[in-house]
Amino acid sequence: MIEKNYQPADIETRMSVVWEDSLAFKAGRPDRRDAVPFTIVIPPPNVTGSLHMGHALNNTLQDILCRFERMRGRDVLWQPGTDHAGIATQMVVERQLTERQQPGRREMGREKFLERVWQWKAESGDTIINQLKRLGASCDWSRERFTMDEGLSKAVVKVFVELHREGLIYKDKRLVNWDTKLLTAISDLEVQQVEVKGSLWYLRYPIEGKTFSPEDPASFVVVATTRPETMLGDTGVAVHPEDERYRQLIGNNVILPLVGRKIKIVADEYSDPEKGSGAVKVTPAHDFNDFEVGNRHGLRRISVLDREGCLDLLDNEDYLRDLPEGAAQFAEEFHKVDRFAARKRLVERLESFGFVERIEPHTHMVPHGDRSNSVIEPYLTDQWYVDAKTLAKPAIAAVRSGETTFVPKNWEKTYFDWMENIQPWCISRQLWWGHQIPAWYGPDGKVFVAETEEEAVSNALGYYVEQEVITAEQGREMALDRNKREGFITRDEDVLDTWFSSALWPFSTLGWPDDTPEVQRYYPTNALVTGFDIIFFWVARMMMMGLHFMKEVPFSTVYIHALVRDEKGAKMSKSKGNVIDPLHLIDEYGADALRFTLAAMAAQGRDIKLATSRVEGYRNFATKLWNACRFAEMNHCAVPDGFEPAKAKETLNRWIAHETAHTTREVTEAIEAYRFNDAAGSIYRFVWNVYCDWYVELAKPVLLGPDSPAKDETRAMVAWARDEILKLLHPFMPFITEELWEVTAERDGLLALAPWPLKPSQPSPEQLAMLAAAAGPTDPLISPALVMPIFDHADFTDPRAEAEIGWVIDLITQIRSVRAEMNIPPATLTALVLAGASAETRERAPRWTDVIKRMARLSEISFADRAPDGAVQLLVRGEVAALPLKGVIDVAAERARLDKEIAKADADIKRAESKLANEKFVANAAEEVVEEEREKREAALARKAKLLEALERLKQAS
């Protein structure tokens, strides 16, 4: 029995338990043993995370695919898990220690601190998982993984050791993004570019051999910089090779102001003659571009900052080398001064000597750490790197050949652009929480990389015995007694970048490096659903690692979804106060309404403008479905055993069977093509318009009339179409559909495991062979009933039923539209004349006269050879239907109203076009503001077109 009111909270709690208890989402179910696998790995959310709107969209789309394929008979594995999120998690625990006034990380020591992190993870780490379950994510939760699980850690170590053995992992001194607050290197993804109002300093660098004078431009070169404090590390000045102003100076030296170091003027195309003075200072140890310029010209790298962002000048051999006498005193004065305080003092000193030509206000982008909010410093330091360029080559080829495709396809260009210009990947982090790098150092700094400490010790002792650093006897004693080798060999303290372990996710979660049945069956995966912002950081790296270690691409399709923005198109952010919490929407409207909203708006390549009103609207849609099912139940609609819709006799019932088949094909094809919005739109129109507004309404006279074979058939068809709706809608709105499936009839199983409505045709021998190959060597003969469906599109159709019921619907719809346009009150009945009607229309019209009169508010329906004078003429499926409106409406008053509305639309169009024609407005206004004006213009143009159409009709009634 269906409850009177739809209460999503009650349903969602109950259905979650039902699914969990029945192991509905478990991969490898006995009934799917012979089925072709379908695998998706979840982008593992941070263990510190809480469900945000990006998660909600991403996981809704994954769940649609998984539920769809599960209903199509596939053996679905949606692999869940969480990421240890090195920096984020370490910060959470350190903040807790501070708030509780407990000893900090350094005071606790590594071992005790990591115990504390694991404790926090056990207490709070499941928050995001429980929230995903609230959303309805149908993962195989029994297989949940964590990037620091023992098995996954084993995979990480093996990959590191093998890549190092192959020369693809190495240690190097290069620039990294350095967080001076967290004291670690961070990835580009963890860097936010923040617009800052600063200054551009134009500094005079004296030319060697000339007497410097601020009044003599020939005695110096002017360079512009936003970072005067890094000038102490300058080792060159770059000018464009074709810049006539400096051509004669190339190869000469300038003298670094205050410091006195000679630095060379080099020709490099990096310098832009149109910007600043055309000459740029080159500081290879403090700027990523300068690092490359320095490499091209063999310039020294002088790092003048320490890990905390303070000047590091004393005892700095690189800085002090080749300094003239007296410069060391300057070094002492500025040693350990914070970089921003040093900037101010240095500028004052430069001004006092005449080295500052001018200072201009300058707005520019400055990198900040997304977690620490401190200014990120390009920092020269020893780190571990992966040779990404070598690993990228097969990954590029795999996408070019079509082994992996991107949807939308335009993201492939982004992928290629980045992969073809890929830089070495810095994988070491100066943290404690994470996978500690499996490298040990001997007393002379020699590195020993190994899978275990025992192996590293063995290798190291063997090496040092061979080098006669220790005796064989000492080596044996150290091997047996840990205390005797204490301090002789020490482990690298750094941990690996979180993305390193995430790169192995598609196969490490299946048990690799062990040759498990899961690896054999579920790798490679089928689809990856993710955001565009991690194409480089995650997608590309999974491609590289998957191809290198598994010799196959990790997924065949990468679906890239867009951003969820606020209703005005602005990016959500806490600072703007426009963040929409998906959990609040679930509490208010239910998970199904939120899921359907996100799916319905997920057009490929277009950001989602999310308004709460849209979620509320789809909650109303759920209520509409609920009430339609209650109506069917109250009218004793049920599907009898052996019922075959294709054998229905009533035209209306054959029409709904036809429309159901059509919608099923539309929804199926749209999901297959990742057109989630089209699939949602199709099922929405079918449920609301076709089934509820038309079929049920047109069936009411039969259902409420006396018992008859037609009534029996209609009851069966109402229930059958309802069941098909529940199946089609289930991937989008799983909770309400599962509940209605359970309460509307006595059924054998769950809707989540029910067959998809569109039946597969019998596969050919060639198709069976293809499917067998896809299933892998571990599968026995594939059952045709459980293969990936190969559709027979000659499903049930009835053009004659569609023509008849379609005519009725189109006629009523157009009459209603005219009545609305002409402001005809509902109580006013109008006549209808079918002019020059065909034999088919004359034959079908009497059958539907009562229905048309009731639903279109007509007084009578008649036939005539031609439309009467002064009648509004409608073209309905090629035939004329006329509404005589003389005396029914005040034509003059209606024309005046329409003219006024058209003038208003014209004013709105003019206002929007005026703004959009303003180049300054388009260039400077926020993207969402410009887009809003475009939408206003389009809406006004559409409104005007409708009004002009109504005005044209009005002329017919004159």
TrEMBL record:
Keyword terms of this UniProt record: Aminoacyl-tRNA synthetase, ATP-binding, Coiled coil, Cytoplasm, Ligase, Nucleotide-binding, Protein biosynthesis
Motif ('KMSKS' region): 571-575
One Gene Ontology molecular-function label: valine-tRNA ligase activity
Catalytic activity: tRNA(Val) + L-valine + ATP = L-valyl-tRNA(Val) + AMP + diphosphate
SUPFAM superfamilies found in the cross-reference section: Anticodon-binding domain of a subclass of class I aminoacyl-tRNA synthetases (SSF47323), Nucleotidylyl transferase (SSF52374), tRNA-binding arm (SSF46589), ValRS/IleRS/LeuRS editing domain (SSF50677)
The keyword Coiled coil appears for this protein: yes
Pfam families for this protein: Anticodon_1 (PF08264), tRNA-synt_1 (PF00133), Val_tRNA-synt_C (PF10458)
Gene3D superfamilies according to UniProt: HUPs, Isoleucyl-tRNA Synthetase, Domain 1, Valyl-tRNA synthetase, C-terminal domain, Valyl/Leucyl/Isoleucyl-tRNA synthetase, editing domain
Main subcellular location: cytoplasm
InterPro entries: aa-tRNA-synth_I_CS, aa-tRNA-synth_Ia, Anticodon_Ia_Val, M/V/L/I-tRNA-synth_anticd-bd, Rossmann-like_a/b/a_fold, tRNA-bd_arm, tRNAsynth_Ia_anticodon-bd, Val-tRNA_synth_C_sf
UniProt motif ('HIGH' region) ranges: 45-55
Residues in Valyl-tRNA synthetase tRNA-binding arm domain copies: 890-955
Subcellular location, record wording: Cytoplasm
Coiled coil: 895-957
E.C. designation(s): 6.1.1.9
Functional note: Catalyzes the attachment of valine to tRNA(Val). As ValRS can inadvertently accommodate and process structurally similar amino acids such as threonine, to avoid such errors, it has a 'posttransfer' editing activity that hydrolyzes mischarged Thr-tRNA(Val) in a tRNA-dependent manner.
Sequence similarity: Belongs to the class-I aminoacyl-tRNA synthetase family. ValS type 1 subfamily.
Subunit structure: Monomer.
Protein name (record): Valine--tRNA ligase
Source species of the chain: Bradyrhizobium vignae
